[in-house]
Amino acid sequence: MTDVSHDGAASRPHAPGQARRRRGTSPRENANIGAAPRFARFGACCRWALAVLACLWMALCTAVGPLYWREGSIADWGRENTVYAVLSFAVYLGIVVALVRLGSGAWSWRRALARARERWRPHLAQTAAWRGARRALDLTRRVSAVVGRILRRGTDRWWKLLLIFIIGWLWIPTTLVTAFGADIRSQIREFSWAWNQWTGIQQPYIGFFSFVPMDIYPTAHYLWPEDPTYLTDQHNIVLTVCYGAVASVSRYLTGSNDAGYMTLSALQYLFAAFCCAATADRFLNLGFMRRYTGEAAGRRGPARGEWLLPQSPRRRSRPLPTITDQEPIAPAGGLARFLILLFFMTCPLAVFATISLTKSPLFAFAFVWWFGVWYELHATRGRLQRDGLPVRLSRRSLAAFVAASCVMLVSAKYAWYILAAQIVLALVADRRRWRTYATALLLPTVIIHGGVSLLIGTGAIIAGDPIESRGIQLQQIARVAKLNPDGIPESAREKLEPIFNLDQTAEAYDQDDADPVKSSGIQSKKVSYKWRTVTAEDMEQFNAAWLEIVVANPVIALDAFLAKCYGYFDVTAPPYTSMDYYVDSTYVQDQTTWIKDWCHEWRDDVAQFARDWGAVPVLGWFTHGNLYVSLTLLVGAAEVVLRRWRTLMWHMPLLLLMGVMVTAPANNFERHMLPVAFVFGFLCLTFIRDRAATAARGPGVKVEA
């Protein structure tokens, strides 16, 4: 048998398994041609291996959940856990496979439905039920088309979306007023004591059993400057000053902090509405496209129909033609708009976060804003304007990028790690717009993070204790001290003696929360962590002692690790602390002046409704952050398999945030999952659009967005 070469000419037969030699090529080139498929198969195997590892990790977290619910050990693994692991792995891997088939265009529910309809139509066409179903389907289509048009018209501008968010959330600040826990009270206390110090009212550090603000969330005394201040970077110094100043003005004008709480919650509610509206406009309406198409009068940019050209070296040297085709990305349909708005309007994660005065919700809404600008950069990457230059962010979008980065930096200390990683990735994937990334990412990081470091270096504020980031190690040491104290090597015990009281550490151990181990809080305070007397030299021995304990007790150490973080990836695990905690906490309901008397019972009812909804099997999963974290990880695994590297580049912060969750002090703490949950709907919309872009390139094109 002969075969046809690329140019249609007949070629000679070749032996089975032997690579065909192309005409006009050298033996070395033919060897490379034969190696290419093998390399592609190896790459596919590696990508699928990563996806399988993600599914295995999630299956493990799901399977060990029942063990740790009853405070057991992985050594108690039984048949029930094996069944959980196998079933959950099959489900997770099945989702990844379905996403890959959907994303590559190999499967479409519309085509599947059409094939089924064509198959069964001859058998059912004559039945009355079929005719009734057809009429009902036609009616449903007409109604959905009308509703879709209404949704699109009602949400086709960012200011319309802003009104929807403001009005839809208006009941929250007016009836619930505010929501907070212990953190903001500590921040207000810090600022008040510092203000008294600045104004000449000395509050000396007296008595071993007296607690200053830096001792409540303990900051080791070796970190204090020679002339101690009352301000720390424990909860981010910028937020501490802002919250404390507003509360001080409130006390001056009204005699209590309540007006300050109300003001701060109202401002955060407006900020949340703005961030969500701006990002929804970018994803749903592609609002930034109007600036490039010149659709809106008075805006600079190419005329209508002169949009963006795919970047190509061959096109750079010749005149750029006018594009008259349809825009490459279509605005979202009515269903996507409805689902995204439904989540923000009804999910307790978003509803309660609007007024919760902790650092995580503020970071989460700023992250939503930041994520939207990244989508604008992603959608315009690799395209040229008519002048041949790469598309640059407009001044408005660049200002939004800078502002969002700044809010993230001042609200969460780990934000600078995320921004630093994104700077590197962005310069690798989109180096032609390096000025944008230097301005919006590098400059705020240097100014804000560098400024705080300078304040710490000069003694103006006290640094946060680095033990905060060692939650996993603390839990492993504490669990061993509790369950197998004789298993602690003597050398490790000697190294830890200046740092911890191991008896108190064992007593304070809670498998879900590392805060008691590091002596956080003031109620029933146990001095597990010797923050008053520990020195920097003592802390240098910490890692060595921890490693000795882990090596001597590997099973207990593994239990401590899994028990502290499995809940973030187990959709069946109830939250350790949900967002409704802040709504009816004792700090709000009992320790405020007048807020506790305003809608007191309503606040309890709203929080209880959220808890009851979250306790419903399956339906309650939609109210918990770990569902969105798990699904985001699966979508990321599918993107790896599909080789959507540039999409993964700006989705990488979601993976970094999962790392933050694992190292956080508490397990399944919902406020740490807010950023991932808030952008999950936009992530799905991007995945679908990338599928459409893959299909538009036609068959035979590699799957890469």
Automatic annotation (TrEMBL):
It comes from the Bacteria. Keywords: Membrane, Transmembrane, Transmembrane helix. InterPro entries: DUF6020 (IPR046062). Residues 1-31 are annotated as: Disordered. The chain crosses the membrane at residues 48-69, 89-109, 161-184, 266-284, 335-355, 361-377, 398-429, 441-463, 648-666, 672-688. Pfam families: DUF6020 (PF19484). The keyword Transmembrane applies. This is Uncharacterized protein.
